Amino acid sequence: MIEKALVGSKKYWGLLIVLLAIMGVGGICYLFQWNYGLGITGMSRDVSWGLYIAQFTFLVGVAASAVMVVLPYYLHNYKAFGRITILGEFVAVPSVIMCLAFIIADLGQPTRALNIVFHPTLNSILFWDMIVLNGYLLLNILIGWNVLASERKSVPPPRWLKPLIYLSIPWAVSIHTVTAFIYAGLPGRGFWLTAIMAPRFLASAFAAGPALLILLALVVRKFTKFDPGKDAIQTLGKIVTYAMSVSVFFVLLELFTVFYSQIPEHMHHFDYIFAGLEGHGKLVPWMWSSVVLAVLALILLLNPATRKNENILAIACVIVFFSLWIEKGFVLVVAGFIPSSLGKVFEYSPTVPEILITLGIWAMGFFILTILYKMAIMVKEEIAS
Amino acid sequence: MYNGGKIFAGLIVFICLITFPVWYNVVRGKAAYRPELKIVTEEKECVESSEYMRNEHMHLLDDWRNSVVRENKRTYTAYDGKEHEMSLSNTCLKCHSNKADFCDQCHNYLEVTPTCWDCHVIPEEKKL
Amino acid sequence: MKIDRRDFLKIGGLGALGIAAKPVINVLSKGESAEASHGGGAVGGKRLAMVVDLKKCKEGCTDCIDACHKAHNVPDFHNPKDEVKWLWNEPYEKAFPEQEHEWVGGGMKGGPVMVLCNHCDNPPCVRVCPTKATFRREDGIVMMDYHRCIGCRFCMAACPYGSRSFNWRNPRGCDASGNTFIEKQNPGFPTRTTGVVEKCNFCAERLAKGLIPACAEACKENAIVFGDLEEADSEVREVLHSNYTIRRKPGLGTRPQIYYIV
Predict the structure, then answer these.
(1) DSSP state, C174?
(2) Residues C12 and C68 both lie in one domain
(3) In a domain, A316, yes or no
(4) Option in C172, C189, C208 nearest B72 (CB)
(5) Does B6 lie at the interface with C, CB-CB under 8 angstroms?
(6) What is the ipTM of this complex?
(7) In chain B, where are the structural domains located?
(8) How many CB pairs lie under 8 A apart between chains A and C?
(9) Is C91 on the interface with A (CB under 8 A)?
């Protein structure tokens, strides 16, 4: 099927070349980081994780959200999703690859990365995260590829694939739960020390992921002859609505516990992101943007009239994606370190090379996504004709 | 056969490229040389036989570092029963105090770059 | 009893699962057994600890810090972002946030508290490390294996005391005007390399030679007492017995082994 990705219009090649160029710039910056060390980033002794790990966290959610199309189709036989499960699985694949790339980019000694395998440590959550992420990647490649190949030959998927598809459903939940455990089990970090971390992660993932999927489905419809289907997009819209509502609700629960109990180690972090602390407030505009965008998205999504209008739905999805990206792809990780475990406020902002490396990895993700989507859509078009 | 000419031309270019290091050295006249080690110590014996050290010193050093760092065992009993402190800087380099003429000779020859010296301090070299 | 192939595979599978689960159970139960053994004398007979008498500690004195950083080739990057430190002073309020109030007396308010790795009995950094690059020795020292560290910095997120530093850049380098970050290299101890985490090692290399930690040796006021808690007549036990001591963030269950006389 890979041959489908090797023929295409000028637009297709143009997109790939642009993405390659961004990857190239990111790659050159990574060489600088390789030589100089992670000091090239904005990270510090106090804020020891930054943009990379935040992107990793956010993208685990995007990857997990494939389950939102797989589950209704395979468990509830919801036919409208039959056409787009492949689109969900082919979002998951590049997302997981980006996750792994962000982890590697964040390692101080990337050449020693395999020590995680050579010295397996069962009590480390990072070890389990490595297992579930790689497993999820493998599952989605296997499932996506085989389903597409049998679709092309107009035969049902091989029987051995069914158990793997069922397995991929709880597995998707596991990747985001384990990722939440990285944060939720640390004794001295009040911002993260909350049992609702995993549910919060899942809720925001099931909003941001399907929102991205809606946008991709709309792009696919505009530029190709394949139509993912109005029903499928509307149902995804409802999923985004529910998940976003639950996500906002979970954040409000967090705010209640923190501000009503008034335990300083927990509260100071929230003070910092919403109002600033000791005169430092770099994250305040970001956090309030996220809040305003979340409210706006909910208004547009909860009202059936606006949700059913695909143009407005698309705008709402962009808003959902950015609102959650700010909250989870940036603030959640950085604010866990501010104030530091010694009660100091030392701020963080990413540097230019750090941002370029990040963009390079995103471009790599979209590069893989474009190729996978090209294959899937060519097959779909072939069947249709 | 389709495009036979192109395939063979491609194969020839490929073979030329992968054998580049071989004929480059032949042309430059710098064919294989033997690395020459200088041993500057007055001691007659290393902790193990020369042959063993030549083949296995990297594994021995690996064992030493794990033993010292992870198990807090710092004494090595040599094959002749003598005891030595397990230390790269303090034991190995006490005798082999000429890193450039000893360690680097073979490492350069074989293009291996051990990372020992990124952290471990090289004591001042003794003049010969 | 007849076992067909299907049954055999089922039993075999369950058995394999049990074997796979055993190390997990071992790991999960380890925390409790350490707690139990700590009360009544640990096996192995060693539990190294330090008592710092803050009443003897002089304001403005940095003898212990200088001795430590010199002995261990700790670099000084002259900026807080890249900072690496093993031992340093924190104001009382930052070291003991739970014990802070408006009327703290006894000269403690704002006063310097020497802080370092607590060599916890139940160290979160060891729990999270994915490669066992940081581990707890039998005598209680929480060690770093710089050869194995991949630089993921999970331990830095896990340490509730901010005791860990990362090498954001090459500690052997020098600044724009050519001053080396390590002022004078101690040939008896290695430096670190870019991209690994480092911290206080309780002077494991000196203990092996029968010496006490460099900070304790350097302190002219004898404010630092170091020794083995399992030894009934050791000086640490004596000092702990005859003084009221506190530890940093005891509520987190990490069981720090640095005790402070306030």
Answers:
(1) B
(2) no
(3) yes
(4) C208
(5) no
(6) 0.92
(7) 51-119
(8) 147
(9) no
Q: Let me know: does A187 contact C120? Beta carbons within 8 Å.
A: no
CB contact under 8 A, C149 and A344: no
- From residue B46, alpha-carbon distances to B51, B57, B79, B94 in Å are 10, 11, 9, 11
Whether C160 and chain A come into contact, CB under 8 Å, resolves to yes
> Which of helix, strand or coil describes residue B124?
coil
Q: How far apart are the first and last CA of chain B?
A: 67
Same domain, yes or no, for C157 and C79?
yes
Residue pointed to by tokens 């639950």: A246
C237/C208 same-domain check: yes
Average pLDDT over residues A171-189: 95
Q: Is residue A123 part of a domain?
A: no
**A345: domain range?**
207-213+235-350
Average confidence (pLDDT) over A319-337: 96
Considering the domain architecture, whether residues C12 and C122 belong to the same structural domain is answered as: no
Q: Which of C129, C147, C192 to mutate to test the interface with B (most CBs of B within 10 A)?
A: C147
Q: Which residues of C touch B72 (CB under 8 A)?
A: 137, 139, 204, 208
| C139/B contact by beta carbon, under 8 A | yes
Query: Residues C148, C94: one domain?
Result: yes
Cross-strand partners of A277: A280
Task: Say whether both C57 and C101 belong to one domain.
Answer: yes
Query: Looking at residue C29, what is its pLDDT?
Result: 46
Count how many domains chain A has.
1
Confidence of residue A124 (pLDDT cuts 50, 70, 90): very high
SS3 category, C130 = coil
Residue C208 has pLDDT above 80, yes or no: yes
C36 with C52, same domain? no
DSSP string, A28-40: HHHHHHHHH-GGG
Of the candidates A118, A121, A343, which has its C-beta nearest C97's C-beta? A343
Band of pLDDT at residue C40, cut at 50, 70 and 90: very low
Residue range of the domain that includes C5 = 1-40
Q: Provide the number of structural domains found in chain C.
A: 2
CATH code: domain of residue C124: 3.30.70.20
- Is C156's pLDDT higher than 80? yes
CA dihedral A264, A270, A276, A278 (to 10 degrees): 20
Tell whether C82 lies on the interface with A, counting CB pairs under 8 A: yes
CA distance A116 to chain C (A): 5
A361 belongs to a structural domain: no
- B58 chain-C contacts, CB cut-off 8 A: none
Are residue C65 and residue C120 in the same domain, yes or no? yes
Picking from A85, A310, A323, A97, the residue whose alpha carbon sits closest to that of residue A204 is: A323
